[in-house]
């Protein structure tokens, strides 16, 4: 792995500590552009499915037609398509608070949102109210201090969210991203996701 790729595929300690302070389960993945914003996806990895998919060279599937078929598959049909190796917990942003709130709120149909403020001064009351109004968590992680969980946001996607083919697409996207970040040896041919700027 090149030094440039290695720096892209890392998660800053402050982000990992903030996710822990917020009480989120799962694994923080390196930052990725999602919906035009740089966010850290947080996923729960199903280790059994992960190992099966890597062992059987079943890489991430990015074709929406195939995913549509997979998502409509019934249990009495055989053989079953590969299960999802990851489930989405939420998204983290360390951008300026107003930008961060908008960014994680835009992904509310997929998972929870968490804003991490790394400034030396505590977040303003306006920022805290903005997070609260958008049901987004807020962690203040000042330099040289432990992170403080100031606003408890929603856990999971918004109540009205339904599972869509796009949900599975993002699970597959993050599966591929997690495999790449982990450096796990794979035998499949990597395909670039068609919605990679999504």
Low-confidence runs (pLDDT<50, min 5 residues)?
Answer: none
How many distinct domains? 1
Structural class designation: alpha/beta
Query: Radius of gyration from the CA trace?
Result: 17 Å
Q: In angstroms, what separates the terminal alpha carbons?
A: 25 Å
Helix tally? 7
Strand proportion: 15-25%
Strand elements, count: 7
State the assembly state of the protein chains.
single chain
What's the mean pLDDT score? 91
Major beta sheet summary: 7 strands, mixed
Order of helices and strands: HHEEEHHEHEHEEH
Tell the overall outline: globular
| Range of helix content | 25-40%
Q: What do you see in this structure?
A:
The mean pLDDT is 91. Strands 1, 2, 3, 4, 5, 6 and 7 form a seven-stranded mixed beta sheet that branches. The protein is 35% helix and 18% strand. Strand 5 (112-117), helix 6 and strand 6 (137-140) form a beta-alpha-beta unit. The protein is globular and about 55 Å long. It has one domain (3-182). Helix 4 (64-72) crosses helix 7. By secondary structure, it is an alpha/beta fold. The chain contains seven helices and seven strands.
Name its key features:
single chain; 198 residues; alpha/beta
In a few lines, what is going on in this structure?
The chain has helices spanning 3-8, 13-21, 47-55, 64-72, 97-105, 125-133, 165-182, and strands at 27-28, 32-34, 37-45, 86-93, 112-117, 137-140, 148-151.
